[in-house]
Fold this sequence. Notes:
The structure holds two protein chains of two kinds. Chain A is mostly helical.
Amino acid sequence: xxxxxxxxxxxxxxxxxxxGKVLSxxxxxxxIAKSRIVGKKEGVIRAVVNSALSIVIVVVLTALMFxxxxxxxxxxxxxxxxxxxxxxxxxxxxNVGDYLQK
Amino acid sequence: xxxSIIIPCHNEERSVRATVASCLNQSRKPDEILIIxxxxxxxxxxxxxxxxxxxxxxxxxxxxxxxxxxxxYGLKFISGDVFITTDGDTILDKDFVKHVEEDFQNERVTAVxxxxxxxxxxxxxxxxAFEYAVGQNLHKLAQHYINFLFVIPGAAGAxxxxxxxxxxxxxxxxxxxxxxxxxxxxxxGLKVFYDRRIVVFTQDPNTLRAYVNQMxxxxxxxxxxxxxxxxxxxxxxxxxxxxxxxxxxxxxxxxLLFAIPFLSLRFFGAFVISYMVVAFIFAxxxxxxxxxxxxxxxxxxxxxxxxxxxxxxxEQMVKELFFRKKNLHWFKPERVDMQQ
Lengths: 102, 340
């Protein structure tokens, strides 16, 4: 886990633990001992449903994360418009542009 | 139930005595301790000889250069119904074998993942202990609840022998064989069991160079396994969920970490402060869990490691995903003397 103290995974995992702590006693599961499912037959329909669900999860999480990424970038661009390092970078790029135009 | 312990070793003269002693001093004695001496050129062989018939040593004359080769070689010799994998720089808790036996009483259990603790040495190992405490008590516990344990640690894992031989082959095409094994078990629908009572104490890198090299191996191996088992992420919803969280968030977090200081120092300052506050809360949690007060001081140096981790994560992503430069070189950090 690259980002143990930030982001969606922290929130989601805390929620999962919370739900798990509540549900496990109800399902009479031992936290330290989960059993595997052996020889569970996965029919074609079940496989298709699983694949579809997986793709939906990946797409939703990708969209969510890139939206957050965009918002963070936009905010930092807006907030730092007048900061000295931004002006230096802008100036440097402008000089490069001018040099290339010549 | 017959339980074997398998320990691959390559030049472990500074730590192997403590490792073997911890195996011998178990509250439930293992039935077999098998040590694979992988072409050691130091005093490892002499040290192992002092244990006499208490351990069985299998020697590979020339170093294989990769732990998975040594493991594959050694597994031909084991006779246990269950085998425990650990490393030559790791000490097993005295009840390790006892708890493994309890867990495998359930016939449906294929593999068990244990809990890794970092041996104290310096600030770098304290940062690792902090990461382990949060990773294993929060993220790994959540993975346990959704029945997708990301990895069975190579230093603290146990497998039912017949299931292992039936479902797992050594491909030697990644540098994180433990991660590869875990993916394979999930592929077969064999659920992995997480038991926090099964504890090991391990040596972690104590220099920045060693730390970076280890992170290169871990992240590089992570990307290799993700590529190798990418179909799992579109076949099983819980795997899609967990891998998306881990890898997408890793990429986005790393990119932001390097982009934001150039875009807005004020915004970056706010990010650092909020990150430090959260890290401090988790440092208190880690202190409580590990009973180590030095972990309270970790959030400040950990910030440096966050940058290093993010850089290495992106570097390995580019190497493995875009340039397909598969690194199969096994890195072994320098060991320090370990007390029994």
